[in-house]
Amino acid sequence: MRVSQNMLYYNSINNMNKSLAEMMRLNEMGYSQKRINSPSDDPAGAAIAVALRSQGMRLEDYQDNIKAAKGWLTLGDSTLSQASTLIASIKAKAQQASNDTVTADQRLITADEVRQFLDEMLALSNTEYVGKSIFAGHKTDSNAYEKALSATSLDESIPGSAVEMVQGDAKRSVKVEFLDSGTVGGATDLQYRYSKDGGKTWTTATLPAGSRTLDCGGADLTLADGTAATGRAGDTDGSAFIIRPTAQYMGDDQDDVSVEKYGAADINAKAEGNFRTGTVVRVDANATLPGPVQYSYSLDGGDTWVSGLTSSNGRLAVPGGTLELTPDTGNTLSAGDQFTLDQREARININISRDSEVEVNNVGKDIFGGLYQEPGASHPSANPDKGNLFETIGELIGYLETNDRDGIADCLDKLQDAHETLLSGAASTGARLDRLTNSAYALGIQADNTTTSLSGVEDADLFKLTADTARAQVIYSTVLKTTSQIMNLSILNYL
């Protein structure tokens, strides 16, 4: 084979470039400390590194979410702990004021102290984290609670639900007594009186026929239409109320489920339970209530269905609860009739892993109670269940300022119920906080494993890199030396 001068030059330059490129590659690895600096270095390894890096970024996002969730829940846990301590102080004051030896003036002093406790509890219920209310459900941009007035019925025959609204202002509790017997909103006038100083002095007024609102010197008490009032007779008390302070919940709730009907216009539909958003129930065959009713349900808004279900009593079981169908103006169902169930939602959930989330806020009315006006309602009302803290504190203030020892004693049991309700909310918050701690630990391990795996795939072996660099330097020096000798070879050197 004839070796031309051109071939010598070409091969020499090519060898120099290859050895120099290897030097540059090793130099880049030394600078970045990475074995893979471009996909061409190791296509398979580069793909694995991309997947691991993406997983690491997701884990970092979850860790950031856990930090944010911990901020919410740590503050909530601390706030409820303070509220629990405050309730203990209120119970001690109520216990002291329920003694027979305590005078009316002393109870007034205690009432002033409890009013301060009420303001402090109101401030705790309006606690914010980074400007967001933690007890208002989804309505985080406004206070969870506002000061309000309500009234306690002293007549066992008139339930608390007869008090529809109290508006205006009252620096002290106002006692209201009916002097005439009759029906509120009826055809005759009713006389009543009210006292703003605990019964020392009274002002007489008249509730006009057809009216339901009693003017009590700055505070207006509105009673339900048809409330049967008994007038005071001599020393015998009639129907009476105490207008006193409370707090009204301004956030949202998730107590109810709205049902939207498509067809079945003459059927009543009511849902109970806790449903996933987008739950749809479909009637699969013509039916007459109470049944049997053949039906299907969908948890993804109608994309996929679970079919072959039957109800014999009009109560259709679906994940999360039941849909109850009852006759209204008719009792027939047609195939294809549908019902969409939407849960009122007040929870704020944060993802802490691919398949897990945690609730970071609380629905204040389920912990602190108070008044609440449900969507569509004409007036606020108090939760009839036990454990309404703000209403109980308000009642205690009313009894203290009207010197009602028996009422004060009754508040002790109610305060205990309210304390248990608050402690239940605190326990839930604490459990979620513990869950975050465990999740953070698990995510930390996953993140460390991901980092280790990524390092094993793309990091350079420094010992091997040092040896390869030294070897490449020797090779490059050798190539340069031999190339310079080859370049100088020519027939002219022998002439």
List the helices and strands and how they pair.
Elements: H1 5-32, H2 43-97, H3 104-125, E1 128-129, E2 132-133, E3 145-153, E4 163-168, E5 174-178, E6 182-183, E7 190-195, E8 203-207, E9 213-215, E10 219-223, E11 228-229, E12 240-249, E13 257-262, E14 267-273, E15 279-283, E16 287-288, E17 293-298, E18 306-311, E19 315-318, E20 321-327, E21 332-333, E22 338-343, E23 349-353, E24 356-359, E25 371-372, E26 381-382, H4 389-401, H5 405-458, H6 462-488
Parallel strand pairs: 12-25
Antiparallel strand pairs: 1-2, 3-12, 4-10, 5-7, 5-12, 6-11, 7-8, 9-10, 13-22, 14-20, 15-17, 15-22, 16-21, 17-18, 19-20, 23-24, 25-26
Note down, in words, how this protein is organized.
This protein has 495 residues and is α+β, with helices and mostly antiparallel strands. Among the domains are: 116-253 and 365-419, no CATH class; 257-343, Sandwich (Immunoglobulin-like). Helices cover 40% and strands 24% of the residues. It is built from six helices and 26 strands. The chain has helices at 5-32, 43-97, 104-125, 389-401, 405-458, 462-488; strands at residues 128-129, 132-133, 145-153, 163-168, 174-178, 182-183, 190-195, 203-207, 213-215, 219-223, 228-229, 240-249, 257-262, 267-273, 279-283, 287-288, 293-298, 306-311, 315-318, 321-327, 332-333, 338-343, 349-353, 356-359, 371-372, 381-382. The strands form eight sheets. Strands 3, 5, 7, 8, 12, 25 and 26 form a seven-stranded mixed beta sheet that branches. A five-stranded antiparallel beta sheet has the order 13-22-15-17-18, with no helix packed on it. α1 (5-32) packs antiparallel against α6. The mean pLDDT is 86.
